Amino acid sequence: MSGDFTIEAVTRSDEGKGASRRLRHAGNIPAVIYGGDKDPVSLTIEHNKILHALENEAFYTSILKVNIDGKTEKAILRDVQRHAYKPKVTHIDLQRVSGADIIHMNVPLHFIGEDKAAGVKAGGALTHNMSELEISCAANDLPEFIEVDVTALELEGVLHISDIKLPKGVTSVALSHGEDHDQPVAAIHKKRGGDDTAEVDAEAPAEDAGEEAGEE
Hints:
The chain folds into 2 domains: about 5-95, CATH 2.40.240.10; about 105-190, CATH 2.170.120.20. It contains 4 helices and 13 strands. The chain has helices at about 15-25, 45-55, 120, 195-215, and strands at about 5-10, 30-35, 40-45, 65-70, 70-80, 90-95, 100-110, 125-130, 130-140, 145-150, 160, 170, 185-190. The longest helix has 21 residues, at about 195-215. The radius of gyration is 26 Å and the shape is elongated. The termini are far apart.
């Protein structure tokens, strides 16, 4: 299940670029929470606490507790805006959720068994075609990540979305659109170069020598 994170926030009434600039100069950032059966609310959140939380992968796929003026609401992180070149967050969007709400989220894939994969042992190289998967589930069933076991993947084998064992209550958004959306997730192919390249290079001088002899 997803991690346990709490965001401390206060409501704000001042809007506009000037107000946001003043917030940032004071070490805070503007934010908004929306969704559910309530109106959107503009918030002020301490910048450094959010920046620290964003360093944790689980923060992006967790049901967050947002304390707003002493009252707690549950939400998920929907958008993060960052400074173009400075390590700063400039704005975040939060969406209210309840336990039964069906949500769509991109969840990171954690690959296991890479060193033990059959195809790797046979001399192949593993490639990741996807690093995250869009899923649909109830908010209470939201996983922090999804494990992808590649141990049994053979040389020249391809693992697809349909091969992933998803947690209970979790479905793939791509697969919900049909079998033709069953995209590759990982594959093991024979390494390029090596002995084959050496053979080609070894033959090249002989061919060049023959051509030079003919010219003479």
